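Here comes just one.
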Amino acid sequence: MRKLSLFILSLLTTLCVVASHLRLQPQQPAVPAVHDSVTTDTTTTNQTAATPRTADAKPRVPKDEAAATDTTHRDSVKVDTVKTKPGIDSPVEYQAADSMVYDAASGLAYLYGKAQVNYQNMQLTAAKISMDMDSSMVHAEARADSTVEGGLDGRPQYTQGTDQYDSERMSFNFKTKKGYILNVNTKQGDGFMTSERSKRAADGTLYLEKGRYTTCDAKHPHFYLALSRAKVRPGKDVVFGPAHLVVEDVPLPLAIPYGFFPFNKKYSSGFIMPSYGDETSRGFYLRDGGYYWAINDYMDLKALGEIYTKGSWGLSAETNYNKRYRFRGNFYFSYLRTVEGEKNMPDYAVTKSLKLQWTHTKDSKAMPNTTFSARVNFASENYERKNLESMYNPLSYTQSTRASSVSFGHTFTNIGLSISASANLTQNMRDSTIALTLPDVSISLARFYPFRRKHQAGKERWYEKISMSYTGQMSNSITTKENLLFKSNLIKDWRNGMQHRVPIDATFQLFKYINISPSFSFRDIMYASRINRSWNTLLQQEVCDTTYGFYNLYDWNVGVTANTTLYGFYKPWKKLFGGKIVAIRHVFKPAVTFSYAPDFTASRYGYRKEYERTDASGNSTMVAYSPYSNGIYGYPSGSKQGLISMSVSNNLEMKVRSDRDSTGYRKISLIDELSASLSYNMAASRQPWSNLSTRLRLKLGKNKTFSMAAVFATYAYKFNENGQVVTSDRTEWSYGRFGRFQGMSQNLSYTLNNQTWNKLMDFLHGRRKADSSAKDNTADADADDVEDANVDPDLKNARKGGRKPKNKAKVDADGYLTFSMPWSLTLSYGITMAEDRSRQINVRRMRYPFSFTQTLNASGYLRIAEGWNISFSSGYDFEMHKLSMTTMSLSRDLHCFEMSANVVLKPYSSFNFTFRARASELADALKWEKRSSYSTNVEWY
């Protein structure tokens, strides 16, 4: 107790002396007081240093300041000018999970165990950090630990903004922001940089020695570029000196003296390096080289060119534009000049071809009442056959038709008026025929009730149910050859006109169950020209005389429809069908329609005329024609009609008890639709009955529907006086036969894969899965998606540069890995059945034999192993009795590289092999391509 009292007394005396001494010192910046050699053992210790200098028990005072503290030599001017300049601009925060030791003699602070130092936007973490409080220096290093991978635990990690550096040992100055790093590892863009020794400049630039650059994210990269020296500007680029390629730790004799990789996250302009190769008919080439121009944040431009040693060349330009919440689109133009053969030789030919594509989409949120879209896909007849890329793309090479459209529309919602305009172009690539409509303008007025009161009171009156609408259309079109389009005459060669339609209808109820719907429709057509025809007896040919003016045509019809819906229910006998079937419902919908239209072929309308034709022998015949037969909307050509149309539609459903439904019941569609329609024309002088049209639709599953339509002719065949087969006026029914089957057309497709195959096997063996939600992750996610059913999802991810998701391996009951080989096979079969009138008729039955047109296509994929994908597509031509377009592709995912081989087997043969890095930075530098020359491999059939 006495020793403790003496210690406390001595401590108080020391504190008094120190306090009296401090009162004599000039004012210094406040600093935290840290005792000599104090060790704090806490879970986490946090400290904040206001300045880099920490006062000890006796702060060190310079001589000039010591003189200023003497009261006998105090100089107010000198005292005022003495200021301590802080070493850094803001506080330094530091903490450690294990312990913190400060050595006052050396001015060093040691942080142990998950040490962390924060300064402004910079952070440094490591297993051990030492701080020099006077010089703003920080040293960080890892701790040796044989239990962790690499033998080092708590590797220093420096973070500033988005930049992060991992290393083995690091020294950094917070004041100058410079550092020295050993074995640094950092990510720049999609690549990873490592080096044995590196220096960091104040602006963040790294100077590396013995570095490595790779885009492989494995811990031990499969490949890298060994860089002797490099300069890294974070977020911008890497510039390096002599470098060589190393694959699987094996140096390859592939070296370059200089290079750089850009890391700009924003758009940047630059040159595009071309690819080289040779092609038999055109010679050696440089292709796809040019310049990329980042115009602004909303638009860019890529200009490419290609040149061949035998005189062929081409240019292309592509631009993308995107205005968020407004619109986006793409524009592409390509021009090719192809030279084949040698000059002054018979096979010498020069072909010029072009291609134009434009897609534009407007955001629906911008001006909701206005729409504008463009889908332009125009190419000259021989473009795809002259473009080298199309030779290895069967879809482009075999494309027979192209369609383009540009449309604009606006709706005035307050009055229900809609205006739309469009331009449409259809190309036939086989014979260079084009059909162009420019413009096609439509005006439509939504249905309205002209007699309905604005403020209704009481019951609705019958005339208030009358409604009407309006549709107007103006078109200008031409069908011509590709090379004659711009030589055509707008007045003589183009077809144009206007059309107006006004339908008026209403719906009433009769006896509560029958709907009566009278209707009236009026159509008006306007043309600016007509063609009068006559016969030239001297020349023995028809003479056409086109006259121009305003010509108005019209037609109308009136009709009334009666329809209703009948329901029938049947409860099966339990002793025969069991108690699972609750009821069967039959829905029957009959409809009868009467329509009338006058005879618009009468001479008083002027829509049909006749001229006398006299042949060389003097025989005269009357030839009927219409001056408006060439009109874009045709002409009223219908004869007098008093048409009675009858139709019936059936629907059959069954309700059964089910444990799998929460309601306890489930509906099953037996017949989704079974319908038939027939009409009788009371005004017709002969053959008043129409053909019988039938339709059947069955629901085979949740997303599977079977549909079939068939037509049965009413009138039978007969032989005329010349022995020719003609259609008689006698019906098939009068002979005791059903209507003559005219034919049908049907397409069927189905996709088989791991899922559907297992379900089929379970169904055949009567097995039920306990959990229907358990799915094979390696199979297609959607078996009903026919478009993607033949594409391996992992192959799609590999093409996009993505990584496959890591799924937990499945094991069987014995603990072994479950064997899985994902596959998919899509089969599509189409058949068309029709009467073949080119063959001999069956005299007894008076029926022609049927001809069949069949198509069979198959496509799919097979993943033989992890990362290996095989896909194929083919078909069979039943007329030519051989395979149609047949292609096959093989791809291999090599983690940081990808390999693909595409082969066209029929009708011509070609191959394309590519091996390249997956990262975009190296895709054009580290690649190897080999293609066959199409001109030496085409097989003409």
